[in-house]
Amino acid sequence: GLEEVLENIPLGKLMLETDSPYLAPVPYRGKRNEPSYINLVCERIANMKKISSDEVARVTTETSVNLFNTTINGE
Questions:
Q1: What is the span of the domain harbouring residue 52?
Q2: Is position 73 within any domain?
Q3: Domain annotation covers residue 75
Q4: Cβ neighbours of residue 11 under 8 Å, at least 6 residues apart?
Q5: What is the pLDDT at residue 72?
């Protein structure tokens, strides 16, 4: 399942997304999805990888910044 796949993907190769507007995460199933639920995706990955959600957020944000060749808050 998802755990087995995620186990073989380095954190630095992941980016987070929410499938908006469809497929809201539990506990919001059946409702319209929105970007503010990204924290639930982050927490799920952190639990699967047995690391903190802060670490998942930091690394995946860095990956996104590098991929899109952009900055955060002008930094």
A1: 2-67
A2: no
A3: no
A4: 49, 51, 55, 56, 59, 60
A5: 84
CA atoms within 13 A on the CB side of 24: 13
The mean pLDDT value for 27-44 works out to 91
Distance from C-alpha of 27 to C-alpha of 56, rounded to nearest angstrom: 21
Residues 4-19 have a mean pLDDT of 91
**SS3 label, residue 55:** helix
Q: Among residues 5, 1, 6, which one has the least CA distance to residue 45?
A: 6
- Answer yes or no: is 17 within a domain: yes
Query: How many domains are there within the chain?
Result: 1
27 found inside a domain: yes
pLDDT in the model for residue 37: 92
Predicted pLDDT at 75: 65
Residue 14 has pLDDT above 70, yes or no: yes
